[in-house]
Amino acid sequence: MIVKTELNPREREDGKKFFVKRFSTLSESVRSYLKNINTHLAYEDFRQERRKLRMNGESLSGNVLANFLKNYSERSQAYVDDLKLLIETNNFMKFDKTNGLLN
């Protein structure tokens, strides 16, 4: 069962209506993130690119798919750039070719 709490961010600009979610476990937060990415209209381009890669028999590349997450953060391209740097710095590309749940 997912137990979450919606919190008002301390530094939220006037007129903004977003909340921060708090989860009781890491697993619950990941499950919520996956649901968001897989259902929200803001990530339709991400899902289309992922579908295209799968249909072409290509590996799902974190560096490629990160380009479609501009809407995940108000930082937009800066968020994508940081995410790609994180992937490269930690050599997460090694997981691009894994089979199973994520592919």
Blueprint (SSEs and pairs):
Layout: E1 4-7, E2 20-23, H1 26-39, H2 44-55, H3 62-66, H4 77-89
Antiparallel strand pairs: 1-2
Compute the number of helices: 4
- What series of H and E elements makes up the topology? EEHHHH
Which structural class should the secondary elements be placed in? mainly alpha
* Topology, number of strands: 2
Strand percentage, roughly? 5-15%
Radius of gyration: 15 Å
Key features?
103 residues, mainly alpha, 2 domains, 43% helix, 8% strand
How would you describe this structure to a colleague?
The model has no long low-confidence stretch (mean pLDDT 86). The longest helix is centred in the first third of the chain and has 14 residues. The protein has a two-stranded antiparallel sheet with strand order 1-2. The chain folds into 2 domains: 39 residues, no CATH class; 60 residues, no CATH class. Helix content is 43%, strand content 8%. The chain has 103 residues and is mainly α.
How would you concisely characterize the structure shown here?
The protein is mainly alpha-helical and 103 residues long. It has 4 helices and 2 strands; from the N terminus they run E-E-H-H-H-H. It is 43% helix and 8% strand.
